[in-house]
Specification:
By secondary structure, this protein is mainly β. It has one domain (2-94, 153-215): Immunoglobulin-like (Sandwich). Helix content is 3%, strand content 37%. Strands 1, 2, 3, 4, 5, 6, 7, 8, 9, 10, 11, 12, 13 and 14 form a 14-stranded mixed sheet that branches.
Length: 217
């Protein structure tokens, strides 16, 4: 898919409700439930073996850039939003974008020596995504000195819309930071968690294939 280039005064891509987004069709990304056998905990595997999770079946993905920043907009159906967590058995809605940090990185949370970067939004947090690095299932950790990824979200009409926004190529970015360049080609994957369905950690819906992305020159 293409990350369309927009003018600096064409609108506010950081706002998921901006009219700017209406000018670009969304790419429908199919989602599936993460395999229960790949959950890192034997307890979770046993408890959820016959359970239902990964109920979100698709998400719409749009991407734009202005030559300095890039913005990713995700949208998906959510009839019962959860944005406030009051107890340990409650879980907030969440979404993430996953980027390979090496050519050989597998989609399922990377592998040893082939890490992935995750931009993780959760409905009960502020306007900044957590940036994680993973080298395999169950290895996700916060990235040290991560470059900020701003987020803005709105729930309306039974749907979540979330925008992730960051500079294309952070100065001094290390090997754990994904960088973008105008005209470059990249890969991205999507994950969604339903709080109402008690989804968290590895219990999620995710895109089983990379989405190929090109930043328009």
């Amino acid at each position: 898919m293409r990350a369309n280039r927009v003018a600096g005064d064409a609108g506010e891509p950081g706002d998921p409700g901006s009219v700017l987004w209406s000018g670009f069709p969304a790419r429908k990304v199919g989602l599936v439930g993460a395999p229960v056998g790949l959950q890192p905990s034997k307890y979770v595997q046993g408890k959820w073996r016959d359970g239902e999770f990964g109920q979100t079946r698709a998400a719409g993905l749009q991407v734009v850039h202005d030559g300095r920043e890039v913005a990713f907009r995700l949208e998906w159906e959510c009839a019962r939003p959860v944005s406030v967590v009051r107890d340990n058995d409650e879980f907030a809605d969440a979404a993430a974008l996953l980027f390979p940090l090496s050519e050989s990185a597998p989609l399922m949370m990377g592998a040893e020596g082939a890490p992935v970067s995750l931009w993780h939004w959760r409905a009960d947090r502020g306007k900044a995504a957590r940036v994680n690095v993973a080298e395999g299932i169950g290895t996700s950790r916060l990235q040290g000195r991560a470059v900020g990824v701003e987020t803005q979200a709105v729930h309306a009409g039974g749907r979540w819309s979330v925008v992730f926004r960051r500079v294309l190529a952070p100065q001094g970015a290390g090997p754990e930071t994904v960088s973008f360049a105008v005209g470059g080609r990249y890969r991205v994957a999507v994950a969604v968690w339903s709080g109402a369905g008690s989804e968290r950690a590895g219990l999620k819906a995710f895109s089983p294939e990379w989405v190929e992305l090109e930043l328009e020159a």
